[in-house]
Structure formats: structure tokens, C-alpha cells
Amino acid sequence: MKKKDKVVVGLATCGIAAGGVEVMDEIARELKKRRLDVELDETGCIGCCFAEVLVDFEKEGMPRVTYGDVRPEDVPALVESHLVNGKILKEKVLLIEGRKTTEADFLKKQTRIVLGNCGILDPEDIEDYMGIGGYEGLRKALSGMTPEQVRKEVLDSGLRGRGGAGFPTGAKWNFCARAEGEDKYIVCNADEGDPGAFMDRSVLEGDPHAVLEGMIIAGYAIGATHGYIYCRAEYPLAVKRLKMAIRDATGKGFLGSDILGSGYSLDIIIKEGAGAFVCGEETALIASIEGVRGMPRPRPPFPANKGIWGMPTNINNVETLANVPWIIREGAGKFARLGTKGSKGTKVFCLTGKVRRGGLAEVAMGTTLREVIFGVGGGIKNDRPFKAVQIGGPSGGCLPAELLDTPVDYDSLPAAGAIMGSGGMVIVDDTTCMVDLAKYFLTFTQMESCGKCTPCRIGTKRMLEILTRICEGKGEPEDIERLEKLAVDIKDGSLCALGGTAPNPVLTTLRYFKDEYEAHIFDKRCPAGLCSELVTFHIDPEKCNGCTVCARNCPTGAITGEKKEPHGIDQEKCIKCRECLRRCRFDAVYTV
Amino acid sequence: MSEDMKLTIDRRKCVGRKGQTIVEVARENDIWIPTLCFDERMEPYGACRVCLVEVEGARALLPACTAEITPDMVVTTSNERIDSIRRTVIELILSDHPKDCLTCESNGSCALQDLAYRYGVKESSFGGEAHSYHLLDDNPVIERDPDKCILCGRCVRICEEIVGAGVYGFVGRGFDTTVGTPYEHPLEESPCLFCGQCISTCPVGALASKLSKGAGRPWELEETDTTCPYCGVGCTLTLWTRDNKVVNITAPLDRGVNRGNLCVKGRFGFQYIDSPERLKHPMIRGKDGRLRKTSWNKAISLVTERFSGIVEKHGADAVGGLSSARCTNEENYLFQKFMRAVVGTNNVDHCARL
Fold it and tell me: Are strands A386-391 and A424-429 parallel, antiparallel or unpaired?
């Protein structure tokens, strides 16, 4: 039978935000208009967020082509060229299967286990997932393996928690399996909250069944009687697809009572979070599921012994669980061959900030930062110099160019002062002020502190105040010492990991970019030209050709000058909004 | 029987029982560990972080109030690292706390003041923004000063765990977290019972009794332990008196059936003591309808005479006895015995049944 030609639109949140629904509607209209018998489908995010909206064309006799940056107005030309004339529309090409394109490195340099199906499968169709071996891992575990064997397999694979702390997953399962309790809970932590991290959302949206399958296998391995997926409410599409996945998996007998005739039963409930970052912390998450304010409590007792309603509870992150079906299906040995001695498998990173190809990058553990940022990510936007990368969100650290050859794994990153964290990578160039960056992350942690313990509640506030005054040019010579002292005591004294890691961005920027702090404090100068209290804007008369763009866009009328004559800025009127700097096409505006 | 456990605290050999926390064992052995959010009446909380101690083999410092002892545990309660964090924590709390000890109701009985004194923290070196909220004075009994609140959560927990009213909860996040009532409504519109348990646990001056305001500093008052007269539970009270007048009532944590807990009557119902309307002598109503002071002998003789008359004329079942919940068990026993054996009726009941 002849395979039908197919058009697939990437409709994860990133695709929808970029206008994917409109593109899909336009394609449907165009196909109808031209009476083309082509299957139109949707998929999750393949990770090329830098080029949304993404549309795949599969036509008989042609390689699969991914077009990027597709707008509704591009659709008629695309359909005509590709489907009617059988010609690839070169201007919009992002990737061509089996061929080299300028962006081919983005996928070629990755090793995709967790993201393997994202952007390929229809996440709303369980048959699609089953077609590529989905739920075979579950079948294998339930029919041929004891719970102990499943736990041993995961332990042997070397899989470690992908949510941040990197605790060996198999060991965690063993704790919970061996704890005594009438009921046991398996929880999927989908409360992804680090600024710049969206891998869990992409997996939930793009391959929800993999997470579900991993969770059911984990439930079987620890003897869980109930399951919860704690998903942030800000991920409505993920919640919708999870609900569909649960319904469909239950319909196929993969979930519910007596799964696949094995006698093992599990039900899974989705609990939507109410928007608190701290609820990603295990004990706060448990409190939130129980219906009270999400505030962490000291451990021990660990959730493995006393979790939801005081019962043994095992909590794993989305990405961790998404690895599980693959491990069971392909075997621990195959997984353990990927990665380094202490860190096995792959890790999904989210490339954001000043990187050229922002998006999702799944690489084998031990890949260097350089490979990830320059190889997969394509380097820095506008060819500016790389300055630093913030890894692990607000809990992580900021690493400079000298450390670009650091391998990403659970041992090397902490040694450099950062953490793996959930895998957010915010890449910054020379226009970013490192004090300002630290201030940004402290603003986040201070806002998200639950207010329970003193060091986090008041300590991060005081650190933020010191950083703010440094950025405003009001820093005192003793401030660096104050920051260091506070940072150490907050790390040591806080109740949970939110406070315990909150000082990391400050500590690492102090370690690698102390000169910037000193420039702010002693010279009252911001080397990146960013802190508005410390910079003034000027126009280089040599470079200015009097195009008047800056003057026309200045909101306060601070810029004057005749057409085709160099312009000038009235410092009294300038509010340092940076509009002129952004608008000038001749590099004539500079900061001092 | 709980199992004994040997451990070492500050190089001293101690013995604790399984399930005890480090703070509990330390206190039994007269080893001082500072606490702010700890109150033995409630579940440990681990929030204030001044009780952090070092435990051999543990990477992180552990809160002594929540960490349970383990066999052969070696605990250090004070060293440079620990004291540095304690000092920082005290400084941080003080950086957002009014410095009005001179007029604060809790001066002299304030845990924060004691810690600042002990660790020589005069003021915070961090400076920065301090909150300035309104004083919450929406009822006749409890005054709340959120500026002084150190967010230890003791009031929240005692109301939830001991009283069961759950009036207070945390509101907001980060530096702006406060303790509030549902929708910030006045206490009188909340499930508050005005038992004052929250005041009893507040380690600072954020919660104060309006009935005792300005009545005197702890060192100016005399303490007398007694039993609460209100009901048969017989809670132990400590009366704080000045010039022979009761100005405040608390309950000791370490003795009595109530172990520090009191209800609204026991804690706040003391104004009657000096009320001019208080009945202090037996009185007999004369033929003119006026009550006149008399002696106990005369009063009891009159009661005996009248009751005997009724029993003779109408039989013993014409009399009934109703006793009070304010009596002790022994008194209630005697009362029913009296009704049955002396008066000769089974008509005896008790107000608690109503």
C-alpha cells in the first residue's frame, strides 16, 4: 500500500507560542483548497526552539524535510513547492534527513534517549508510541522480572536523579521498597521551575507515555499502590496530554487494576501545583499534595520512610522516569556504556540566552560545555564573545570561558562550583553584567523562598540588597566580604536545598568575575555597560551618519542632531532606556 | 519500654531513649542548646536554625530540635562554624525586628533578647529594609504586632496541633511572609477561642495579652503556683501578682496535668478576683427580701433545717442534687454519696451532662 504523504506541525508550547496553531490551520486550508490527500498531524517539540514554527514534510520519493521559522503566509508557497512540484523550498529549510544543512549539527551532535520520540511521535496517540516499542519495557518488567530485578537493573544502569541532586535512582527505589507501610506512593515530580529549564515540559508534551511507562515500572519496582504526577498548573498542555495518556493507557490495560494480567495494580492522579517554585522540593511537594501550604520540613525522616500521609513515598523527576522504559527495554549495560564513570546515560539541557540555537540538547554525560554550547548550540548570537554559562538555574553556578572544556557530569560541575541541577543553561555574552546576573537569580530565590527558615527568608533578602546597591554604584568595600560571609552561612544554615543553593550564583560570580564586583564598588563602573546607574550613553561622531533612527525612537527627546549630521545625547534628559543602543545599525552608540 | 541509647554530647556521655531528639536529651543533661521555634508541646519544626549542631559523620549541620538520636551519636553543640551561623541568624532576625525592648511587653522574658545577649549581638551588620506593619488590635484580649514576629510558626502550630482551631497560617512568600488569619479578618471573626495559647508560646513580643499590658516586668512580680478553680481538670496555674493583685496568669511547662496549656477562663478569667461584686461571705435573705451577711454555721444550719423539713413532709425524692464541673472527682463522689446515703434519694446529676 502506498504510504500517504504527511505534514507534521510541532505543537508543543514553544510551537504554539510561535504561532503553530495558525500555521496548522493555514496548512489545512491550503490542502483542502488544492484537494491534496495528505495526512496532517501534530507532534511535540524536537528541541529546535530557535526555529519555531517547525513543520515536517514527508513526501514519497523525497527525504523528510523540516522547515523552520514557518509563518502562516509561508504556507501556500511551501505546499506548492514541496507537495505539488516536489521541490524543496530552500529558504525555509532547517533540516533534511540524511543531508548536511547549516543547522544539521544541532541534532547530529546529540544522543537522544529521553527526547528520542519528541517531535517525531504524535503524543496524543498511544498507538504511535506502541508502534516504536512503547510499553514493551513495562510488559518485560511485569511478565519476566521480579520487583527486585527491576530495581537491580536500574541500579546497575547507573541512572541518577535528573531533577538536580543526582541521587542514584535504583538506590532510592530500594529505600522505598524496603520501607514498611500499608500504602506506598510513587510520585512524578513535574514541578519544573528553574528559570531557563523546560526539558520536562517538552518531554511531557512530546512523549507523555514514556513518563507514564517509567512511572508504572517504578511503581511495580517499589510496590506502590498509588501514583501522583505533581505537575505545575502553568503547563496546561502537558496536563492535557498526561490526562489523555492516563486514559489511553488505562484503556489498554497498562494502568489500573491487574495491569497486563500480572496482578499488579496502580492508579495515577494528576495534582496541579499552585505556582510555588519550592514545591519542587520533595517535602514541600508532599505537603502540597496533602493540601497544605508547600513548605519543606527537615529530613530525616526521608520521604522513602515517611512521605504522603506518613507512608513510604518515592519521588522521581520527569526526565529520570522517561529514561526507565529505555533501560528496561535495552538493558542496563547499554545505558551504562553511555556517559562517564560516575554519571551514566545522557542529560537533556535547555540552551537559552545569547546562544545561537536555543532549544533542547540531549548529550551523553561527559560531553564538554564547549561541545554543548558551540557544537550543538552553534555558539553565541551575533558572533559576540562567550562570557559565561549559568548551569542549574538559581541553584547553580556561573562558569567562565576558561572552564568551557569542563565535562558535564555529576562530579565535574560541582567541582567547578556549579551543579547539574535540572539542566538549564543560560548562556551570556560580554554585554551581560555578572553582578546583575547574580542579582537576577537572587531576586528569583528571594521571591520563591517559602519564608520558613531564617537564613533563606532574611539572608537572601540581605544578599539581594547588597547586590542591588553594588549595581547602583553604592557598594561599600566591605560588601564583598559581607556577601561571602552571608553566602556561607546561608548555605550551611538553610532548611532545604532552595536556601542551601541560593548563594551559588553569587559565590561563583565572585569566584570567576570578582573584578566586575570590584569595578562596580571601587571604580563605580559597570564593565558590561549594563547597570544603568553607572553608565552614560554617547554617540561616536565618526560612526554616526545622521540617519535619525535613534532620535526618532528616543522616548524623552534626549537625542538631537540634523539629518546626515552626527547626533548627540543630552545627559540630563537621558533615562538610559538603551533604545538608541538597540536601534543604531552603525554601532555608533556606546556606553561609558 | 523504650530502648536506651548511649550518645556523646559535647564530650559528655549521655543516655537517651529511642525517639528522643538531640535537644530533649541535651536538656535532660543540662546541656544548653539555643532554640526559638521549639516548644516541647508541639511537633518539632526546624525553622529558626539557631539549634543547629554538628553530628559526627553528617555532612550538614542538623537542627537539634528535629534530629532524633542514634546509637553512639557524637554531637557538638558549639564551635566556630555553629556559632557563626547562630550569630548570623540572630543578626538577620534583628535586622528586621524593632529595637524597642525598653517598652516591649516581653522585655525580660524574650528568647530573642536572651540570645542576642548571650551571643553578644548588639545590632545587625547587614542593615537593610525592615517591615513596618500595623499593630493588630481587633479584640479585647490579644494584641498582635507583626513587626516583632520572627516567623517561628509556634502560634500557627499550637493553634493547629493543640487547640485544633487553626486560626493562624502563613501568608505571602520570602521576606514578606507573615502570620495571618484567614483573609486577614479580625480574630473575633475567626474560629479563635481566645485561649491565649498563642501568647503562651510566642518567644518574643509579637503576641501579648492586653489584660496584662504595662502591669510590670517579670522581676517586679511575684509568682505563686495554684490550681485553676474553674473546672475539675485542675490545671496548674502560675499567678503573677504585684501588690497582692493578680496581673497575669501562665502555666508551667514542666508540671501539672496541663503542661503549659490553658483555656480562655484559666488564662484570662482573673478579673473577678478583685471585683467589688464578688461574693465573699454566706448571706441569708431576710423577710424583707434583703440579703444579709451571716456566718457559715448559721447558713448551713438553715439549709439543713429546710431540707429536713422537705424530706419529712414530701419524702426524700422531693429533693434533687446537681453538682458542678468545677468540683473535683472526689468532691463529686462525696456529693452523690451525700445525696444517696444522707438525703436518701437517687436524684443526683451533674451539669456536664446537660
Answer: antiparallel
Provide the chain A residues 418-457 that lie in CB contact (below 8 A) with chain B.
446-455, 457
| Cβ-Cβ contacts under 8 Å for B316 (sequence gap 6 or more) | B343, B344, B345
What letter would DSSP give residue B40?
A: T
| CATH number for B23 | 3.10.20.740
Does the N-terminal peptide bond of residue A53 adopt cis geometry, omega within 30 degrees of 0? Answer: yes
> To which H or E segment does residue A93 belong?
strand A93-96
What's the pLDDT tens digit per position in A359-381? 999 999 999 999 999 999 999 99
Extended strands (E) in chain B: 4-9, 12-17, 52-55, 62-63, 74-76, 142-144, 169-171, 178-180, 207-209, 222-227, 236-242, 245-250, 283-285, 291-293, 321-323, 348-350
In this structure, is residue A118 part of a structural domain? no
CB contact under 8 A, B85 and A455: yes
A59: cell is 513526501
Buried b / exposed e over A239-250, threshold 16 CB at 10 Å, is bebbebbbebbe
| Residues A197, A277 within the same domain | yes
Q: Which residues contact B353 (CB under 8 A, 6 or more apart)?
A: none
Q: Does the distance separating the beta carbons of A458 and B175 come in below 8 Å?
A: yes
Please name which of A462, A487, A504, A460 lies closest in space to residue B84, comparing C-alpha atoms.
Answer: A487
From A479, which residue of chain B is nearest by alpha-carbon distance?
Answer: B126
Report which of A389, A525, A420, A417 is spatially closest to residue A470, judged by C-alpha positions: A525
Residue B227 lies in a domain: yes
**Smallest Cα–Cα separation from A501: which of A187, A341, A294, A280?**
A280
Is pLDDT of A408 > 80?
yes
Residue B160: HSE in the Cβ half-sphere, 13 Å Cα cutoff: 12
User: Whole-angstrom Cα distance, residue A420 to residue A401?
Assistant: 17
pLDDT at B19 > cutoff 60: yes
Q: Which of A499, A497, A428 is nearest to A463 (CA)?
A: A499
B47, B67, B174 member nearest A461 (Cβ) = B174
| pLDDT over 70 (residue B1) | no
Contact A365, A344 (CB under 8 A): yes
The SS3 call for residue A297 is coil
Whether residue A521 contacts residue A475, with contact meaning beta carbons closer than 8 Å, is answered with yes
pLDDT-derived band of residue B123, with 50, 70 and 90 as boundaries?
confident
- pLDDT, residue A1, reads 55
DSSP state of B204: S
For the stretch A420-465, pLDDT in tens is 888 999 999 999 999 999 999 999 999 999 999 999 999 999 999 9
Contact A458/B93, CB-based, under 8 Å? yes
Whether residues B47 and A495 touch (CB distance < 8 A) is answered with yes
In residues, how long is chain A?
Answer: 592
What integer pLDDT is reported at residue A422 of this predicted model? Answer: 86
How does DSSP classify residue A19?
Answer: T
Beta carbons within 10 angstroms of residue A431's beta carbon: 15
> In angstroms, rounded to a whole number, what is the distance separating the alpha carbons of residues A171 and A591?
54
Judged by a CB distance cut-off of 8 A, whether residue B170 touches chain A is yes
Q: Residue A560 belongs to what domain range?
A: 536-591
**B15 inside domain:** yes
Q: How many domains does chain B have?
A: 4
Under 8 Å between Cβ of B237 and B249: yes
Q: Is the pLDDT of residue A12 over 70?
A: yes
Tally of structural domains, chain A = 5
The residue segments making up the domain with residue B319 are 283-353
Contact A406, A369 (CB under 8 A): yes
Q: Does A458 contact chain B (CB < 8 Å)?
A: yes
CB contact under 8 A, A454 and B49: yes
B28 part of a folded domain: yes
